[in-house]
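Reply to dn_fold:

You asked what the input looked like. This is it:
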Amino acid sequence: MTQHQTDRDAPLQVDSIQCCDALSGLRRLPDESIDCVVTSPPYWAMRDYGVNGQLGLEESFKDYLDRLLAVFDEVRRVLKPEGTCWINLGDTYGGSSTHVPYARRHRGKSSIVASDADHAPPQGHRRGRYSKCLLGIPERFMLAMIERGWTLRNKIIWHKPNHMPASVKDRLTNSWEYVYLFAKSKRYHFALDLIRIPHKSLAKNKNVKDAKRMSPHIDGRRMPPKSAANGAFHPNGKNPADHWSIPPDTRPRPRKGRTASARPSGSGWFGSVPGGAARILREADRR
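and this is what came back:
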């Protein structure tokens, strides 16, 4: 009996929060048992969570992608045929100024990187082929997912209006990240009416009335209505499209007993229990 079979013999409890390794936890789920997955896995070489073997501190981004794709192979197995998978994934710049791992470098008195090297990332950020180069990790991940059988439905731009400033002088500040929408099948559950946005044109022009959308067919293809024709406006609002601008005031406020702060990591606000803060490996990244 394999270890994977043993893991699946101990199923997870439904409607509960499980704190475990993602891959081992997924292996305990039965096939086609999950409706939807929404996740933002650790980005490569961005944070040290103080856990041995954690995802994101691999020696190379190729090793990172291999481990990440192994997780989503299990996600695809447990996802129902009509299920969807939403993934927020950020990129990383390659190269560093020394061959020394980040947690062992001197970062100044104000550094939030711990001085101990118990969980120091390996020496995977050296000057060389990818020095100062944006590695295209989200794009590499996206293409690999398609090759593994996933159907890519959207590349959503998550724009951060109040993004963190950067001290770089030879490139633009990063202000957005990808959110991918993957489906397991061609037909899947997607409740578009629940997220529609009210039409501005309808609010301004009372003469425009909703009507049943006309659907003439030419050669078997449904033609869209003209902009001024009856039915050009969906009565429940318009499709919110694939560019999301989420202002900072929509982020969760810190709760009692937790801390929250904005730090120069490009990730904005985050909360953590006392003594459990993640160590940010790239403070004021100048690449």
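The chain is about 15% helix and 20% strand.
Hope that clears it up.
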